[in-house]
Amino acid sequence: MSAETGFSQSLERGLAILASFRSERPLLGVSELGRDLGLSRSTTHRYVATLVALGYLQQDSASRKYRLGPRVLDLGFSAINSMELREVAGPHLRELSDATGYTANMAILDGLDIVYVDRCRSAQPRQREIDLNLHVGARLPAYCTSLGKVLLAHLPDEERAARLEQIDLQRRGPNTITSRAALAAELVRVRRQGYAVNNEELAYGLRSIAAPMLQHDGSAAGAINLAVHSSMVSSETLGDSLGPILVRTAADISARLGHRQR
Predict the structure, then answer these.
(1) Which residues fall within 8 angstroms of residue 80, CB to CB, at 6 or more apart?
(2) Long-range contacts, 15-22 (Cβ 8 Å, 24+)
(3) pLDDT score recorded for residue 8
(4) What is the pLDDT of residues 69-114, one digit of tens each?
(5) Residue 33 has what DSSP assignment?
(6) Per-residue pLDDT averaged across 237-248, rounded?
(7) What is the band of 129 on the pLDDT scale with cuts at 50, 70, 90?
(8) % pLDDT > 70, the chain
(9) How far is residue 135 from each of residues 82, 93, 119, measured CA to CA in Å?
(10) Closest CA to 244 of 221, 262, 226, 223
(11) What is the distance between the alpha carbons of residues 148 and 212, in angstroms, rounded to a whole number?
């Protein structure tokens, strides 16, 4: 395109770098990006360094490769309301909240955090105490939330291990898991049983249970959960009382996303 059109080659290259990251290729190095775009290593590195400085890319400390950064997600918040996942899962989330009387949430995984993409709040007494001022676009550490644990559990083994090494396991609630080995064992158990329970790991008084929304290839597009105050449901009965309806709802959404039970 000619200069008269106002076309910016630098902007095009920067956006092309961001577009190179896909769900099947979440981590890319400078050499890979240069090959994809037909750019020299030095030129690619210059663009990547700029995108890192602006928050659109971040470097993975284990592999030294790059992944999309939080600023990319910020750009996408205006599109969240029209994203397919919300269109598919939204009605199910509302039905889940109505049927149980508890707040239902939907989130995706972004690096070491979860990002809320939908919420159906309950008007039950004490529910507001555990809402934590959360809203669509809010972020929380994945390791101490039921949504995050179920999403981490459904990552490929190598990717899950790499992310676990990066987590700063700070105590957030009375029962936060602060041992890397214990968290790894917990994620194996979550993957096996199909749902995750959070018993005051994020904050005092907050319990929740989450299940994954699976895509055609078995990967998790996101997760849904039910959040309750500890006075409403005991930790011993959380899985038995809310697990079946939550897992069934997640399975219904997964089927609409193309997932088929093996």
Answers:
(1) 86, 117, 136, 137
(2) 17/44, 17/47, 17/48, 17/51, 17/57, 18/51, 18/56, 18/57, 18/68, 18/72, 21/67, 21/68
(3) 86
(4) 888 876 665 445 445 788 888 899 999 999 998 889 999 998 899 9
(5) H
(6) 90
(7) low
(8) 89
(9) 17, 15, 7
(10) 226
(11) 10
Residues 245/81, Cβ–Cβ less than 8 Å:
no
Determine if residue 111 is left, alpha or beta; phi over 0 gives left, psi from -120 to 50 gives alpha, anything else beta.
Answer: left
Q: How many C-beta atoms lie closer than 10 Å to residue 140's C-beta?
A: 19
Tokens read off for 168 = 């700063």
What's the token pair of residue 237?
Answer: 């009965």
Cβ count near 4 (within 10 Å): 6
Nearest to 227 by CA among 140, 113, 109: 140
Bridge partners of residue 67, in order along the sequence: 58
pLDDT at 150: 97
Read off the tokens for 93.
Answer: 């989330």
Q: Is 28 exposed, middle or buried (0-12, 13-18, 19+ CB in 10 A)?
A: buried
Identity of the amino acid at 131 = D
Provide the 10 A C-beta neighbour count for residue 98.
12
Give the global pTM.
0.67
Both tokens of 186, joined, read 């917990």
